[in-house]
Amino acid sequence: MASDRDPLLGSVRNAARVLRAFTNADAELGVTELAGRLHLSKSTVHRLVATLAAERLLERDPATGRYRLGLALYELGTNVTEHVDLHQAALPVLTTLRHTTGEMVHVAVLDGLEVIYVERLESHHLLPIFRTVGHRLPAHWTSSGKVLLAALPRPDLVKRLAGVQLEARTSRTITGHSMLLDELDKVTARGWASNEQEGHEGVVSVGAPLRGPDGRVIAAVSVVGASTRMQGATMRRYTALVVDSAAVISRRLGYRSRS
Q1: CA-CA 20 to 30 A from 227: which of 69, 130, 195, 210?
Q2: Quick one: which of 163, 171, 120, 162 has its CA closest to 141?
Q3: Gap between the Cα atoms of 190 and 56, Å rounded
Q4: Contact call for residues 241 and 201 (beta carbons, < 8 A)
Q5: In what order do the strands lie in the sheet with 193-196?
Q6: Element housing 81 (H / E)
Q7: Both 153 and 98 in a single domain?
Q8: With bands split at pLDDT 50, 70 and 90, how would you rate the model's confidence at 4?
């Protein structure tokens, strides 16, 4: 039994043991089999599998009463593989992009109406923004977030926005739903998004979509810098660089444009 100082939860550990008991050779197992293999009581195993099934991590065959791994595990595994592949595909290109522009470079993914930054290469310039991978920001503040929101099916996006008050960070932040939808239509049409001091005063960015093998937008890459540096011809050049870099990363991820 775990002591008070033991950071591991016994119930979680046993749930993990249940999941690992399933193999290609033993794709379906019953409560009695699991209890015998794991040296747990049948009542304990029954509670574990019932909970895992409720979370879609296991599925129960109503005809036999036996269990198999559920679709939620496949979805989680796909996410892990996708992010590992994303890191491997993006890093060399991000390094070149950061070296060429001298600015901060990010890769972000969407979670609800927020972006999570999963890759970050620092600039030599100091900026008044976050410093860690894993940081979250409201998607409507950022160029990456606009790219990712624009890629959603419109009914899904409207559902996510329903009843949500878009927070204003600066006087330039888009807070109206109709204005945001109009902006996202422009993003879709041109293939990139900009952030003009909408999340932080004096900070601008430009982002473009990263696509997986099926063409689905899975992330966005962006260059972030001071508005005093990223303007005019420089901003136009960085926009082209970001779009080109996004295309290269997407090809490394297996995407092949039909055009």
Answers
A1: 210
A2: 171
A3: 39
A4: no
A5: 136-138, 114-121, 104-111, 217-226, 203-211, 193-196
A6: helix 71-101
A7: yes
A8: very low
In this structure, the answer to whether residues 93 and 218 fall within a common structural domain is yes
Q: Which residue has the tokens 């009463």?
A: 65
| 208 neighbors 242 (Cβ within 8 angstroms) | yes
Mean local confidence (pLDDT), 33-55:
94
- Can you tell me which residue has the tokens 């099934």? 53
Q: Which residues pair with 223 in a beta bridge?
A: 105, 206
* One-letter amino acid of 56: R
Range of the domain at 141: 75-252
What is the tally of structural domains in the chain? 2
Of 117, 119, 126, nearest in space to 97 by CA: 119
Last residue of a domain, one of 54, 69, 84: 69
User: Domain check: are 146 and 242 in the same one?
Assistant: yes
pTM for the model stands at 0.68
Instruction: Tell me what the pLDDT averaged over the chain comes to.
Output: 88
Residue with tokens 């892990």: 80
Written as one string, the DSSP assignment of 96-161 is HHHHHH-SEEEEEEEETTEEEEEEEE--SS--SS--STT-EEEGGGSHHHHHHHHTS-HHHHHHHH
